[in-house]
Structures are given as structure tokens and as C-alpha cells.
């Protein structure tokens, strides 16, 4: 493994790690960090009149002609009463998170335990309607229609948001595991890139779903803000965190591609090339046929047709060496 390959893999590995950290921060909001939340509902100044809580259309046992409707309206008017958050047992603020929610009354904050699909029980419209009817003594009392639709949307979408966030964190962790193997193999880099793409796609879907469900509830509450004296706001810090995770994940995916087509997994290629160049220089030694010096076609001290000139040599001690290299 070369240093270049390690550096090539290190960048997408670091970006994937940053993405997972951002996902964990967003997912654990309200559990480890109780100051971070998806959106907040402000019910401290809630004021709902009894006439608003009564849905006349639900009184099916009464005739529907205008005279009866007018009589019912006149009967309710003298008993009109404005109900506050205290009447319904509501806290001043509600901080809604992915796995739980926190209530704030004064300076006291309480958070529920993290639970999968907690919205199915916490946002129970039938139970809410029963509370309204019990508190107001109106058997046909109901929630404001503007809020019912948004709460139903939140209830249905929130569960699937949790599911997709789980998928994104698991595939992100798998990307890190495969990223270690990608240091040694381009094949592993290819698999890592595919898994990274799944992680990015699931994270994008999760972030979109979470942003939409939060925006729908906040928009619905703001639509009745003046009528019921309630308010809601998105937490831009949480939204920024989940989309920052998306940005890191997409960036990692781009650099995982480079680990497939670039950055060799072996550090021996340089040594091989240097060795081959050394071998070439060694092969420069002439390998032509030998000729006698007295060959009329051979000039002493020069190569002719690849031949190396040779000449007899007497060492002086009686030993005789018939040929030796000369003029090389």
C-alpha cells in the first residue's frame, strides 16, 4: 500500500465520518442534546373559545334546516368560554424531536424517553378530541380543523422518517467499514462507492421528509396563530445539521469515485520501473560475435557488424591467451 493510496482514501473516509457525526447529532436531539429540536410549538398564550371547539356539522341527530342551526348557535353563544393552555393541561412550549419530545413550563423542561414511532401514541387525535370534549363539556367538541390535517400528516410521515434515518446511519457505518478495505483494493472501492450512494440517497430522503413534516405543522399552527394565540417555529440549527450531513455524504461519494480510477494500490510499481531502467543499462555490454584481429574484414579498435575486435596476448610467463578485448 502506497502513501498516495492512503491519502486518496483518507479524504472520502473523513467526509463520511463527518456525515455520520451530523446524522447522530440530528437523530439524538432531545436525548443527548435537549437544546436541539426539529421544531417548537408555543402554547403559553393559547385561547380557544367554546364555539370554535363545537363542530355543528357533527350533530347528526338534529335537523339541518337553518332555523335549528340558528337555535343551536344562539344556545351556545351565552355559554361561550375561552379555554387556555392550563385548562387543557398543556405546557408552555413543546420541542419536537425525531425520537421524542420535550415539554417546557416556566424554567422546567421534561423530555420523554426515546421511542420508535412515538407519534402514533403522542399525537393521538381521538384522545385529543376526548380531552377537548371532557374539558369543555361539549359532546361534539373537536380540534380546530386547520390543525387536524397537519397533525395527521406528521403522525404518518414521522414513522417513515425514523426508518429512513436508521437506514442512512447503518449504510454510512457500512461505508466506513468498506472504506478501510478500499485502502488495499480498487474492487473494495467500487463496492464502497455503491454503498455510499445508498447512504446518500437515504439521507436525502430522510432530510426531505423531516423538513416537510416540520414545515407542515409549523405552517398550520401559524395559520391559526391570530385566532388561537399560538405559534410555532422551525429550528434552523437542526435543519442545517441534517442537510450538512447530506453535503458531507455527497462529497464523500464524489471522492470515492477517484479511489476507483486513480491512486494505485501498490507501491512496487516505482521500484519495478527503476529496476527495468537499471536492467536496460546493464544490457548495453556488446554481445556481438568475436573475430580474429588479423581478419581482413575487421579493423582493430572498432566494431564491425557487431563484432568485438580481439588480439592475441602473451603474458610473458609462457602462458598464452589467444584473444582479448581491445579498443572497447
From TrEMBL:
It comes from the Eukaryota. It holds the Pfam family SUR7. GO terms for cellular component: cell cortex of cell tip; plasma membrane. Keywords: Membrane, Transmembrane, Transmembrane helix. The chain crosses the membrane at residues 7-31, 163-184, 191-212, 243-267. Residues 265-291 are annotated as: Disordered. GO terms for biological process: fungal-type cell wall organization. This is SUR7/PalI family-domain-containing protein. It comes from Amylocarpus encephaloides.
